[in-house]
Amino acid sequence: MSPLFVMSLLFGLIFGQAASLCAPSEYTIHVEKRECAYCLAINTTICAGFCMTRDSNGKKLLLKSALSQNVCTYKEMLYRTALIPGCPLHTIPYYSYPVAVSCKCGKCNTDYSDCVRERVRTNYCTKPQKLCNL
Hints:
By secondary structure, this protein is mostly beta strands. It has one helix spanning 3-18, and strands at 21-32, 39-50, 71-83, 94-106, 129-133. Residues 21-125 form the Glycoprotein hormone subunit beta domain.
């Protein structure tokens, strides 16, 4: 391999992490329970943005670890709990949700993240809406 190729490869690997734009972003979650009278709109933060990935066309020249497909995921998060209004006494009226404190580019952890490419868009209310700003 030529020295120019090796230097270009190293520069790309180092610059790739610096060029990532992964950060907490404002997001609204709509939560409702069948038994409750209202839908709750919760303002929170999630991790969103661009993470540099590497093209697998060079897989014969690179180590497998250099071919990772990174996603914008949680570095630090905490959970908050909101009260869904209009619930009958026999129903648990609480909903816990994640709040992104900081984010990173890394492998997707299915323990707390949705790692699929396409998701079902069901983030809307079918009942009268209440807003929760925490």
